[in-house]
């Protein structure tokens, strides 16, 4: 299970991230689109370099090596515009918004790709899928890249999502739009591990 950061800074964020790691968070995506290089560096340093192998950078990829991070993520826009930096020893992930788009990644070096939104987004108002992604997943031909569900994922639908052909789930709104982020994480984790 993957957790994605809140796009903007929020109260008690670093403490929550540490608590999530203590409870077994595998990967934490740092998606702070408006952060400067200095803000990203400070954010990663605040999390702690001991977690660097579990961190994924969405921007300022050139900082990865200095921060000890070997995972970088490309947005759909960056991938399609060929804005790509070399990460020969690292792991690369990306974002997609249709199964057809996901299937085109089969010959690339992406370990996993998000497919979103699966359900109406918890964190983005009026962000819903234009198609039934459970039906779309049946058209999957790319099995070289792990398919990760994103968008509206919560304890109420983790099992259903994994049953319909997704390899993993990513959480954002159910963590950061909650008064009990760690509790929500643990509920989702328990369901995912029992699947």
TrEMBL record:
Keyword terms of this UniProt record: Thiamine biosynthesis
Pathway assignment: Cofactor biosynthesis; thiamine diphosphate biosynthesis
Domain of life: Bacteria
Domain Thiamine phosphate synthase/TenI: 4-174
Matching InterPro entries: Aldolase_TIM (IPR013785), ThiamineP_synth_sf (IPR036206), ThiamineP_synth_TenI (IPR022998)
Protein name: Thiamine phosphate synthase
Native organism: Flavobacterium plantiphilum
